Each structure stands twice: as structure tokens, then as C-alpha cells.
């Protein structure tokens, strides 16, 4: 199968030397990319700037802003069987990017922010998508309820939820996996590399089932 994985943070420029970003290390996404390669899949890793080296056998696309990540994902998604959007994409970006460095001011000042495009939601809206769509949800409270809301709102097949305080910048995580048909599976606290192998197994099994279903429908139609 062909896997697409997004990872890391995005950087939303304020001026030529400043940006808005977050503390995502990219470790979970990189571990999933590595585990998918080890399981014999092809991998396209689309990543914001992080300190981890990409797996050598992955096709690697380095991006910086949410708009670059959006374009890269849309260029590749329809050629993939499983799309895992693990990146911590900024929710907002400066409404205007100053072409020159903004000068220091003595008092308070505000920066106008505009929403970024939601990449996961845009894939979920695609009518006849032929790939399994997996989103991530880092939450600090009501983890399962918020993740379930996200699963419906973004129309994905699976949401992997975790406690943002435990997973960010860490080598370990604890995951709740919510499936489209309301099943929930928990993977208790473990190194991200171990969890990644479990996730890849779950995703490829689920994708196989989903694609078989689609093939049956096509066969039925052919014989009518
Ligand atoms: O809504 P929230 O940002 O918490 O959703 C997280 C999920 O949505 C992650 O899978 C993340 O990669 C994805 N996302 C995205 N584009 C955005 C914001 C989030 O793909 N602009």
C-alpha cells in the first residue's frame, strides 16, 4: 500500500524573521512513516520543520507553511491508499505578512489572525475518495468526546486521540483510537515507535477491509 503521512508543526510568517508555530516534535508522524516502511509499504512523508531525520526510504517533502502543506497533500493524496494527517498544522496565520521586519514598539499591539485551511477536513469532503483517512487529535480535556466530534466534523475514518500534555515533545504517548462506526480501542502508554507499529497494522487492516467492500460493489454492478 502507499501511505501519506504529515508530521511536525507549520510555521506561519509574521514578517521576514518571525513566525507563529507550536511545539510539535514530529516524532509520532516520523515513527509512523518508519513503521509503514518496515511493514513493506511505500511512504510519502510531508513534514514541517523538525529536528528528526526523515527515514531514508521515504519520499520526503519538506514544507513550512500550512498553505504549502495543503498543496503538497493535495498533490499526492489521490495516489495513496492511506492518508495519515499527524501534523500540528497552525489553526491561524497572520492576516497580512509584513514584507519588512516589524519595528519594536513600546506599548501593546495586536496582530490580526486569519484561519488557515483545514487539510484534513478538505480531504474528508472529497466525494469519492479511495483512501483511508486518519486524523489526530491532541486534547487537554474531554479527550474522547472532543475526538468523536472531530471524527464527525472532518468526516474521517479514524481519529487517533491523545493527551496533548503527555504526547508533545515526548518519546512516549498513550492513544485512543476512534473508528467511524463508534468502536474505540486504547493503546496504553508506550514508546511512540511501538505505538506506530500497532497503528500501521490497524490502518492497513482497516484499509484492506474498506477497499474490499468497494470492490464487491463494483463486481455486483458489473454483473447486473
Ligand atoms: O481541529 P484540530 O486542529 O484539533 O484537528 C487535528 C487534526 O486535523 C490533525 O489530524 C491535523 O493534522 C489536522 N489539521 C489539518 N489542517 C489544519 C488543522 C488541523 O489537517 N489546518
Kindly describe this structure.
The protein is globular. The strands form 3 sheets. An 8-stranded mixed sheet has the order 5-4-1-6-9-10-11-12, with helices on both faces. With 224 residues, it is an alpha/beta fold. 34% of the residues lie in helices and 28% in strands. Helix 1 (27-38) crosses helix 6 (192-223). The protein has helices spanning 27-38, 66-76, 119-124, 143-153, 164-167, 192-223, and strands spanning 2-7, 12-15, 18-20, 42-47, 59-62, 82-85, 92-94, 113-115, 132-139, 158-163, 172-179, 184-191. It has 6 helices and 12 strands. 35% of the residues are buried. The structure holds cytidine-5'-monophosphate. Cytidine-5'-monophosphate binds at residues 6, 66, 85, 87, 89, 91, 116, 118-120, 135-137, 150.
* Rounded radius of gyration (Å): 19 Å
Alpha carbon gap, first and last residue: 30 Å
Could you give the count of β-strands? 12
The helix tally amounts to 6
Assign the structural class, choosing from mainly alpha, mainly beta, alpha/beta, alpha+beta, or little secondary structure.
alpha/beta
* Mean pLDDT rating: 92
Describe the global form.
Answer: globular
Stretches with pLDDT under 50, minimum 5 residues:
213-224
Sheet with most strands: strand arrangement: 5-4-1-6-9-10-11-12
Percent of residues in β-strands: 25-35%
Could you estimate the helical fraction of the residues in percent? 25-40%
What assembly state would you assign to the polypeptide chains in this entry? single chain
Secondary-structure element order, N to C: EEEHEEHEEEHEHEHEEH
The ligands bound in this entry are:
cytidine-5'-monophosphate
Largest sheet: 8 strands, mixed
Amino acid at each position: 500500500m502507499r501511505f501519506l503521512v504529515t508530521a511536525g508543526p507549520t510555521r506561519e510568517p509574521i514578517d521576514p524573521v518571525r513566525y507563529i508555530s507550536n511545539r510539535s516534535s514530529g516524532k509520532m508522524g516520523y515513527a509512523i512513516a518508519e513503521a509503514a516502511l518496515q511493514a513493506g509499504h511505500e511512504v510519502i512523508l510531508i513534514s514541517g520543520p523538525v529536528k528528526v531525520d526523515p527515514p531514508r526510504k521515504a519520499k520526503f517533502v519538506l514544507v513550512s507553511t500550512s498553505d504549502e502543506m495543503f498543496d503538497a497533500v493535495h498533490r499526492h493524496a489521490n495516489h495513496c491508499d492511506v492518508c495519515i494527517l499527524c501534523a500540528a498544522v497552525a489553526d491561524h496565520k497572520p492576516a497580512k505578512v509584513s514584507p519588512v521586519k516589524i519595528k519594536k514598539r513600546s506599548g501593546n499591539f495586536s496582530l490580526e489572525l486569519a484561519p488557515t485551511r483545514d487539510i484534513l477536513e478538505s480531504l474528508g469532503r472529497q466525494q469519492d475518495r479511495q483512501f483511508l483517512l486518519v486524523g489526530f487529535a491532541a486534547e487537554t480535556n474531554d479527550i474522547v468526546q472532543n475526538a468523536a466530534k472531530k471524527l464527525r466534523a472532518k468526516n474521517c475514518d479514524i481519529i487517533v486521540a491523545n493527551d496533548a500534555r503527555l504526547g508533545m515533545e515526548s518519546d512516549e504517548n498513550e492513544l485512543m483510537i476512534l473508528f467511524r462506526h463508534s468502536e474505540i480501542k486504547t493503546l496504553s502508554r508506550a514508546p511512540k515507535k511501538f505505538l506506530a507499529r500497532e497503528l500501521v497494522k490497524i490502518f492497513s487492516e482497516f484499509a484492506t477491509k474498506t477497499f474490499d467492500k468497494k470492490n464487491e460493489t463494483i463486481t455486483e454492478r458489473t454483473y447486473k
